[in-house]
Amino acid sequence: MRLFYSCFVIAFLFNSFLFAQKKELKTKFGKISEAEINMTSYKEDPAAMAVILFDKGTLSHRYDNNNGFSMVYERHTRIKIFNREALSLADVYAFHHKSEKVGEIKATAYNLENGKIVESELKKDNIFVEKLTKNQFLTKFTIPGVKEGSIIEYTYTMTNQGGVGMGLLDSWVFQKVGVPTIWSEFSASIPSFVLFKKMSQGWVPFSLAEEELSNLTENITYIDRGEGVGTSTTRNIKLEYTANKMHFIQENVPSLKTEPYVNSPRDYVSRIDFDIQAVYKTDFIPSGTTYKMVNTTPTEYNRSWSSLGKDLLEDVYEDFLESEKHTASTAKECTAGQATKAEKIAAVYGHIGKNYQVKDLDYIWKTQTIDALVKDRVGTPTDLNLLFINMLRRAGMNAWPVMISTTEHGRVMPFRISTDEFNRVIAAVQGEDSTLALVDMAGYPNPVGLLAAEDLNSEGLLLRAADDIQWIPLQNKVSVKTAVIANFNLLETGEIKGNATYMESGYGAVAGRMAIRDKGAEDMVKQRFKDWFADGNLTNVKADKADSWHEPNLKTEFTFETTGMANASGNKLYLTPMIGLGLHENPFKNPERKFNIDFGATREESYNLSFTIPAGYKVEEMPKGAKMSFNDGEITFDYLTESSADKLKINVRKRLKKSFVEAAHYDVLQQFYTSMLAKMEEQIVLTKL
Predict the structure, then answer these.
(1) Residues 6+ apart with CB under 8 A from 269
(2) Nearest residue to 672 (alpha-carbon basis) of 633, 626, 629
(3) 120 near 108, Cβ under 8 Å?
(4) pLDDT tens for residues 134-155?
(5) CA distances in angstroms from 163 to 62, 300, 419, 586, 625, listed in the order given
(6) What is this structure's pTM?
(7) pLDDT per position as a tens digit, 296-333
(8) Among 584, 585, 567, which residue's Cα sits nearest to residue 576?
């Protein structure tokens, strides 16, 4: 896999301190200071919609004689709300495994009314638990009484019911999108029979980062089984063991402000991620008057991407994919009369797309049985894609699951072998020529071969077989292109009459069909060419195959009259030929940039324009032809001109051959776009003879 984090820090934190000094923020639930309640803005970011006063997480362990060691996670957060845009921060969510219990929930909103602090407390009956999958749950609540000027505060614990609570040692995010944080703190104490890896990322420095291996003791009741039948003895012993202690603090953390072509802030926020690699069985060994806990046999986790893929295929997906009870007959009906593989794929894709509803929840785990899915016809993208694979297999096709991370979820870190790196399963289907086409039911009604735009995120993990797990590029089979061919008659008044053919392939074609479906072809053209028709007329609009959603292309023809492209002044005509075509402004305005640039899909734009000039006029000024290239041809721009006594021709072509640009090349990219837009804005000047 490609490593792309070239512009900011990603560090592996080892069992030695990075930076340590005494730091402490004492907090008590409900103890609100006068300064906090009277805040009207945050001086470090006056425009911020809110500020997180503190966010503290603690992961500790405990031992009881019935269950052994277990983990307890505690969260305590306090936020000042400045305006209505931040009211959603009162919605609190906690994802957890079925073996983990969320409890001790307290949440309050504080408002200043008539000089006094009034409290609005969360009631227990406003706490909800939602079952997402067989093993995954969501506990959620909304803090009442929140308005502009409020302070909200909440705390809860999450406790595993036996075992080490692997899900509790996950991630801590210090930095938030759009909201600054004054104090963010995470501490943990992990028994040494849990082997884990730590990774940090971001630009914000730690004000405290310390780790140490501590010697601890615990008084426990221990049953010694002895060596023979009936020889067990209960002992009260003092157990000595070691634990990894960690403590991390960041202060005055600025909010992460996104920029154009940044798909996921998750790729850039300051955070620490933890991955459990192994959990050891333990034994208690006598040592003088005490016992020492020693590690014995390990149970390994996340050893490699191949082993992770194999486990998921065999333990999670295989039964669902091989079930025939509810899908065999439907698959046969869908593909009846379809001769080619492409036709069969399109038939099953269309059946699910038209008859099933996509639930807005991205999760790599199936959330229901195939029986329930077929009955209720509502599922997550993963559910529906697994159903799609199942039905294709029933129709005799080769299809396999592909685990991906959507752009919003962030790019997969190749060195972090974890299911957390993915949030959706899509389908890989073998076509006529044995090549793979990638399909996502969440992208319907995109034609087959055009993924949902959020799927284009580097690479996915193809689960072809238990012994055949491999990374594949997430690419479209359908090209993304825009083309305009137009013939213009320029009149002495500055008015233009003409006809045009507008063609889209890929995402533009889907968007065009949706616009036509909703408001008609004429409205679609007016919206696409706003600058042409700000003051003009549109007639004879014809959209070819506007209802053929399986077609990758959409062609629209129309005639028009407009005064939006040229104007007359004295004996001169001023023509802006490229107005309304391509970009309207440079998306790269900031003087510097930390984030990589992700354009999504590769694409091509071409504009072929022909102008007939009025009799008695000659060209006084004409843009010169130009060829521009960025980074050895990753983006190219050609601007070609041609003129004769009564004709002007302009041919413009822009090609984006590589969709991902590292931030290190930002200065050159910014200048490329500046030069390209300047060329697109150049005018033609005609003078009357």
Answers:
(1) 173, 174, 175, 176, 177, 201, 202, 256
(2) 629
(3) yes
(4) 788 899 999 999 999 999 999 9
(5) 11, 15, 20, 54, 70
(6) 0.85
(7) 999 888 789 999 999 999 988 999 999 998 899 999 99
(8) 567
